[in-house]
Write a structure and sequence with these properties.
Order of helices and strands: EHEEEEHEEEEHEEEEHHEHH
Organism: Marinobacterium zhoushanense
Low-confidence stretches: none
Largest sheet: 8 strands, mixed
Strand order of the largest sheet: 2-3-4-1-5-8-7-6
Family: Belongs to the extradiol ring-cleavage dioxygenase family.
Bound molecules: fe (ii) ion
InterPro entries: Catechol_2-3_dOase (IPR017624), Glyas_Bleomycin-R_OHBP_Dase (IPR029068), Glyas_Fos-R_dOase_dom (IPR004360), VOC_core (IPR037523), XylE-like_N (IPR054560)
Distance between the termini: 35 Å
Strand content: 25-35%
Radius of gyration: 19 Å
Keywords: Aromatic hydrocarbons catabolism, Dioxygenase, Metal-binding, Oxidoreductase, Repeat
Protein name: Catechol 2,3-dioxygenase
Length: 290
């Protein structure tokens, strides 16, 4: 069994208005600003994250995801996966240490889905914000808004789901934890994990490559989800749907071991799979993509 990729490490997101985006991610979600660089990019993290950053905001003319990075257990793992990515037929780019502030070298590649991903093993570790690693308090005071704890996963829309699964499973060592299939067996959604989490990255079949649906952040309890939704209303922020459970992944509360067979949903149950209580998909969830 191939292991060595630990978790989603970062996502670089293009935003149309940096100041508005900072209000959203810092004041509303409660992420912590940890740096800015010469390009004007802003670096953020959830307070429980040990690494320096997990979100990078870049102002641009179009919104979307520049790339998602996975953290590997060692530089040797990065090198080994790089060779296998080349053998798989991926174009691979070497990004030097320091291109992202406080991050070591990265290996970037494009998946058949059309999305750019990166592998890296080294990032500065200032520790959990406000509590540190020595005799830590339960939680830090002064966290804003939703008090998002950590970057959890991305949902991406794109092409070539089969080939993308081959790459993530055979080259990178992810497992297929959950899937949605049509009556003829075509997989139209796939939830992949490199860990015990229900998913670290998920893909929905889409005619256009490289589209971004969302990046998600972990909240500890249902109470904190309710409070987050309250804050969305207080700030008149647009919302796809109020607090609900997904059928898929038991609402992200499921866990995965490598010997678990994938959980399968029939496509005619998609409404329930996405919104377990409403049991129908709404237009906003389906159509708001960048
Ligand atoms: Fe999600």
């Amino acid at each position: 069994m191939k292991k060595g990729i630990m978790r989603p490490g970062h996502v670089q997101i293009r935003v149309l208005d940096l100041d508005e985006a900072i209000k959203h991610y810092v004041d509303l979600l409660g992420l912590i600003e940890t740096d800015r660089d010469a390009q004007g990019r802003v670096y953020l993290k959830g307070w429980t994250e040990v690494d320096k950053f997990s979100v990078v905001l870049r102002e641009a003319d179009t919104a979307g995801m520049d790339f998602m990075g996975f953290k590997c257990i060692s530089e040797d793992v990065v090198d080994a996966r790089r060779e296998e990515l080349l053998a798989f037929g991926c174009e691979v780019e070497n990004i030097p240490e320091g291109e992202l502030s406080g991050c070591g070298r990265r290996v970037r590649f494009t998946a058949p889905s059309g999305h750019a991903f990166e592998l890296f093993a080294t990032k500065e570790q200032p520790g959990k914000w406000g509590v540190g690693e020595k005799n830590p308090e339960a939680w830090p005071r002064g966290i804003k808004g939703m008090q998002a704890q950590r970057f959890d996963h991305c949902l991406l829309y794109g092409t070539n789901l089969d080939k993308t699964l081959d790459l993530f499973r055979d080259v990178l060592g992810f497992d297929l934890a959950e899937q949605v299939v049509t009556p003829d067996g075509t997989r139209v959604a796939q939830f992949l994990t490199a860990s015990m989490k229900a998913h670290d990255v998920a893909f929905i079949d889409h005619p256009e490559p490289g589209k971004f649906h969302h990046a998600s952040f972990f909240l500890e309890t249902w109470e904190s989800v309710l409070r987050a939704a309250d804050l969305i209303s207080m700030t008149d922020t647009s919302i796809d749907i109020g607090p609900t459970r997904h059928g898929l992944t038991h609402g992200s509360g499921d866990y995965h071991y490598p010997d678990h067979p994938p959980v399968t949903w029939d496509v005619d149950q998609l409404g329930k799979a996405i919104f377990y209580h409403d049991r129908v998909l709404n237009e906003r969830f389906l159509s708001v993509l960048t």
